[in-house]
């Protein structure tokens, strides 16, 4: 199964490990997991660069 996860998080400050571990376990069972992550406070950032 191909899985796409889109999440709004701050990996450095909030560490969403539960989602990370779930995707890791599913990939070990043969599933293909991709994650799109963007800044949690993206609307409030003055510098709104894509990359």
UniProtKB/TrEMBL annotation:
Phylogenetic classification of the source organism: Archaea, Methanobacteriati, Methanobacteriota, Stenosarchaea group, Methanomicrobia
Protein name: Uncharacterized protein
């Amino acid at each position: 199964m191909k899985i796409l996860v889109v999440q709004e998080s701050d990996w450095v400050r909030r560490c969403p490990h539960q989602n990370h571990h779930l995707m890791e376990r599913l990939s070990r069972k043969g599933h293909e997991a991709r994650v799109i992550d963007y800044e949690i406070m993206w609307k409030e950032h003055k510098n709104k660069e894509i990359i």
